């Protein structure tokens, strides 16, 4: 690789850089590699080192101490003054720290070789920084006029300005770390809390699984019973119809044998005696017999069974009824108000202020009916699916307190009801076409007591909604019948 390419290549990532960042040792790196290398603190090293040569300034002797001082042990410098171009031990550094004349001198960590801090053109100490060209300059560089229109500041001023920025960024980083620690603390606390909650959830899932298996078995048994009963009824009816047809055929066969025997009789006296004679008419001979029952049976038409209906509507209705019972029993909607907000992810369809939920199913026609059990502080409503979910205003249902005093709400208007419920079961009936919503109380014998009826014109899909308030009242709602 040519020397020019080597100078333009970062020795860490081996990519060309557009802006070199030289270190005092002479090596240059791109800003990303410098930041990454210096973001990791190496144990035992308190200063930044070159990622390539790992150069770190070693021991530097004090330039003001006479040779052989302190019993032959050289005194180590603690600072280097770039203006005086000397390295100073702690003792000789005191004048620079105490006397005002040295207040403008720039002190850095001890440097053994000042050549990297000198201008390559004028061999003067680099005491200034040009922000426009992002280079260090000496006093002679300024006198040459090459940076006359540039923003040039003394290194001490640049250091102070940069440290103010760095201190601001450091404070921001520390604040961010503090927030991270708080977040971790909160989530670690949630972890233990959630463990108990998840165990309860697991128990509930297992219980629901067992209940579901029982309900599924009941559903399958009920459906089998429906088809079995239908099959037995059809078979019984067919057998009864066939028996009746056979009975009629047996009767006709008996008459046939009787008449055939008469026709085969060769003794006229016997034939007449059995037939009780014959009467001649002008047109024909009519068979006369005292056996009127025989004639009635012969003239009576054979029994023709009605065709077995292939209409399975009643079976489907029974199956649908059982299925609805299954849905009610297994997917019974139970909602309970809790004291603390659950850690649920944000969702556009979730109410963020009011403790309310909507059913997933919405409808635009037909009649619908539910029965619900409600306790505590609650509300039950029919609303448009498009109801607002975010914020407080205009997104709330009405509410009814635990003292069983009721109120009806519509378009933000409240109607107090004089009726007081004696139980906790409420029936809701919706007739979309008629535009009515009727609320009733379900009594112990399933009798309905009318509470209130809304009348309106539905223009959008509507659905059932619930609201629960005051967890201390154990507020809850459950759907018990669809």
Automatic annotation (TrEMBL):
UniProt cross-references to Gene3D superfamilies, sorted A to Z: 2.60.120.920, Classic Zinc Finger, Zinc/RING finger domain, C3HC4 (zinc finger)
GO MF: zinc ion binding
Domain of life where this protein originates: Eukaryota
Pfam families: SPRY, zf-B_box, zf-RING_UBOX
GO biological process: innate immune response
Stretches assigned to the RING-type domain: 10-54
Keywords: Immunity, Innate immunity, Metal-binding, Zinc, Zinc-finger
Residues in B30.2/SPRY domain copies: 295-482
Domain B box-type residues, every copy: 114-155
Listed InterPro entries: B30.2/SPRY, B30.2/SPRY_sf, Butyrophylin_SPRY, ConA-like_dom_sf, E3_ubiq-ligase_TRIM/RNF, SPRY_dom, Znf-RING_euk, Znf_B-box
The protein's name in its UniProt record: RING-type E3 ubiquitin transferase
């Amino acid at each position: 690789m040519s020397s020019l390419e080597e100078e333009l290549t970062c020795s860490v990532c081996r990519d060309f850089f557009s802006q070199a960042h030289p270190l005092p040792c002479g090596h240059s790196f791109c800003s990303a590699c410098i930041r990454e290398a210096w973001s990791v603190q190496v144990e035992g090293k308190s200063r930044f080192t070159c990622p390539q040569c790992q150069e770190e300034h070693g021991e530097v002797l004090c330039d003001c101490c006479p040779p052989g001082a302190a019993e032959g042990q050289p005194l180590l410098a603690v600072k280097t003054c770039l203006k005086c171009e000397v390295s100073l031990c702690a003792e000789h550094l005191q004048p620079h720290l105490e006397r005002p004349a040295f207040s403008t001198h720039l002190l850095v960590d001890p440097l053994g070789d000042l050549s990297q801090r000198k201008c390559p053109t004028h061999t003067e100490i680099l005491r200034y920084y040009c922000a426009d060209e992002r280079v260090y300059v000496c006093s002679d560089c300024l006198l040459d006029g090459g940076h006359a229109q540039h923003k040039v500041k003394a290194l001490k001023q640049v250091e102070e300005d940069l440290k103010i920025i760095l201190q601001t960024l450091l404070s921001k980083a520390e604040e961010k770390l503090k927030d991270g620690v708080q977040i971790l603390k909160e989530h670690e606390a949630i972890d233990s809390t959630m463990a108990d909650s998840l165990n309860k959830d697991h128990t509930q899932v297992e219980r629901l699984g067992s209940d579901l298996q029982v309900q599924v078995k009941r559903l399958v048994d009920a459906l089998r019973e429906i088809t079995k009963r239908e099959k037995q009824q059809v078979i019984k009816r067919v057998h009864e119809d066939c028996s009746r047809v056979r009975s009629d055929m047996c009767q006709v066969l008996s008459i046939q044998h009787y008449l055939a025997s008469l026709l085969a009789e060769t003794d006229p006296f016997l034939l007449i005696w059995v037939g009780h004679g014959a009467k001649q008419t002008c047109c024909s001979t009519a068979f006369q017999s005292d056996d009127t029952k025989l004639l009635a049976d012969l003239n009576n038409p054979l029994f023709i069974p009605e065709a077995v209906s292939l209409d399975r509507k009643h079976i489907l209705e029974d199956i649908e009824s059982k299925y609805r019972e299954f849905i009610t029993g297994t997917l019974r909607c139970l909602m309970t108000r809790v004291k603390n907000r659950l850690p649920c992810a944000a969702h556009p369809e979730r109410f963020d202020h009011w403790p309310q939920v909507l059913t997933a199913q919405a409808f635009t026609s037909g009649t619908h009916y539910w029965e619900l059990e409600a306790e505590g502080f609650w509300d039950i409503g029919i609303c448009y699916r498009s109801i607002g979910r975010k914020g407080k205003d205009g997104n709330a249902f009405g509410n009814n307190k635990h003292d069983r005093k009721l109120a009806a709400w519509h378009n933000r208007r409240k109607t107090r009801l004089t009726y007081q419920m004696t139980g906790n079961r409420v029936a809701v009936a919706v007739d979309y076409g008629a535009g009515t919503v009727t609320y009733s109380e379900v009594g112990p014998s399933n009798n309905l007591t009318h509470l209130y009826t809304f009348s309106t014109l539905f223009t959008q899909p509507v659905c059932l909604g619930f609201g629960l308030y005051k967890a201390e009242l154990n507020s809850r709602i459950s759907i018990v019948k669809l």
